[in-house]
């Protein structure tokens, strides 16, 4: 879809903020390669849990459903895609 609306395959900045769907979009993103990628993470998992929530029906009662991913899970995915985490903000 991005390639249909814009020819630039390496934009300077891309912000992915889709409540409950941003991790899946980020994981399947292969048409463009932004230089800087801004993503959200679920801070309630803290940095010691690597959590990705896809299906709220099968998710643990310990963590209420939100369709989110932890910082550790984001870091792992970013690393697999060749990105380096450079900042964390609130």
Considering the chains and any ligands shown, give keywords for the structure.
alpha+beta, 90 residues, two-stranded parallel sheet, globular
Strands side by side in the biggest sheet:
1-2
Rounded to an integer, what's the Rg over CA atoms?
A: 14 Å
What structural class do the secondary elements suggest? alpha+beta
The main pleated sheet reads as: 2 strands, parallel
Which regions contain 5 or more consecutive residues with pLDDT less than 50? none
Number of strands: 2
Total helical elements: 3
List the domain count as a whole number.
1
Give me a quick take on this structure.
Strands 1-2 form a two-stranded parallel sheet. With 90 residues, it is of the alpha+beta class. 23% of the residues lie in helices and 9% in strands.
Structure description:
The protein has one domain. 23% of the residues lie in helices and 9% in strands. It contains 3 helices and 2 strands, in the order H-E-H-E-H. The chain has helices at 2-5, 22-28, 71-80; strands spanning 13-16, 36-39. The longest helix has 10 residues, at 71-80. It starts with a helix and ends in a 10-residue tail after the last helix.
Topology (elements, then pairings):
Blueprint: H1 2-5, E1 13-16, H2 22-28, E2 36-39, H3 71-80
């Amino acid at each position: 879809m991005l390639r249909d609306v814009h020819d630039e395959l390496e934009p300077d900045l891309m912000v992915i903020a889709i409540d409950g769907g941003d991790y899946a979009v980020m994981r399947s993103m292969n048409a463009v390669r932004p230089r800087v990628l801004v993503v959200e993470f679920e801070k309630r998992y803290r940095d010691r849990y690597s959590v990705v929530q896809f299906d709220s029906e099968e998710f643990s009662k310990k963590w209420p459903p939100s369709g989110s991913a932890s910082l550790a899970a984001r870091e792992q995915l970013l690393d697999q895609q060749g990105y380096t985490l450079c900042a964390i903000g609130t």
